[in-house]
Amino acid sequence: MTIRQADIESVFREKVGRRLDRVIVRSPGRVNLIGEHTDYNEGFVLPASIDRALIFVVSARNDGLCCFYAADLKDEFSVALTSIERTQKGWPNYLLGVIEELKKMGLSIPGCDVVFGGDIPIGAGMSSSAAVECGFAFALNQLFNFGISSMELVKLGQRCENNFVGLNCGIMDQFVNIFGEDRKVLKIDCRSLAFEYFPFERDDLALVLCETEAKRSLASSEYNIRRRQCETGVGILQKHKREIRSLRDVSPELLNEHRNEMEPIIFQRCAYVVGENQRVLQACEDLHRNDFRAFGGQMYLSHSGLRDGYQVSSPDLDFLVDAASSIDGVLGARMMGAGFGGCTINLVEQKGVDNFVEEMKKSYRHRTGKESNVYVTHIQSGTCLLPMIEN
Ligand code: GLA
Questions:
Q1: Ligand 1: which atom is nearest the Cα of residue 127?
Q2: What is the domain count for the chain?
Q3: Are residues 315 and 331 in the same domain?
Q4: Pocket lining: 176 vs ligand 1, CB cutoff 6 Å
Q5: Could you report the per-residue pLDDT of 57-70, keeping only the tens digit for each?
Q6: Is 86 exposed, middle or buried (0-12, 13-18, 19+ CB in 10 A)?
Q7: Where residue 273 sits, what CATH number does that domain have?
Q8: In which domain, by residue range, is 336 found?
Q9: Does residue 354 carry a catalytic annotation?
């Protein structure tokens, strides 16, 4: 990653100049071990920040302009602070939304120069969007000494995505981006926002991501539909128990009791979420006991639920999970993130990793004629400041 930092710093020097007042921030992507589509149902998730990240170099301007340069896309965008609005270009929205949300908090900036880039693949489900939002918000917080707390940065990142980008996402991605730690997974209670770290320090195990080629075009519309279906289910159950606020409050028994009052699809969606919350809690107990085989079992169950109950998987994701399950040394596999594309996450014995990577690439090529990108990832800290490499 240091090499990337040097690259981004040198692009900054070229585009902006030598600025001693610049701040440099590393903002990582994430994996999620288990707990999918539970965050916006006030449930539990178990993500971790990883060794793929964006580097931001940011300095102040005094002329009311914001000038952004996306080093990987070799694309730039400038706008006056007084005329910020959504742009068709796409990527600047993740930065503009942060400035807009700061404004709503009564915090203004005099202008800024921003250069960023890194090695989180875009659209692969490793949450490059939260990395942009939270990395930039963190950098501005440092640069202008706003004194925003870590938890407020998380919420600001989420509001940016909800209000400006337009995806009604939950809080998981922004949370782990800010709070992630080296070699630890983070269990988040998405209702109380209480969190707990679990050591994930087994050198004999690896986390490997296998990417599908599919474009995730369905992801955002279907995501919002799933949210509404969950709310419909909660609405029906609330008629019986007024204290129910979300699917977090619903037990499998209660859900079954009222099954006949719901359209089958609503029941199916709710049953998945209720089951997934239980799987996260079970998986955390497995971690406590250091039982990674049982943990992997929960991952497989999670995938079946996402495929059959929540129906956010895809034939390619299912294929990758099936293929992984038949390879020696694989303890668990499932689709990861919102679904309809992106990656599968696989828990693999370290000694079998090379074979796993080769076998997975071979099967995917055989099926689709295309290469699958396979990433061996390590858990690394959340967003942080980096020292300047040179003056
Ligand atoms: C996306 C969202 C998250 C979460 C996952 C599904 O990554 O940004 O909030 O809902 O999908 O678990």
A1: 7
A2: 2
A3: yes
A4: no
A5: 999 999 999 999 99
A6: middle
A7: 3.30.70.890
A8: 206-377
A9: no
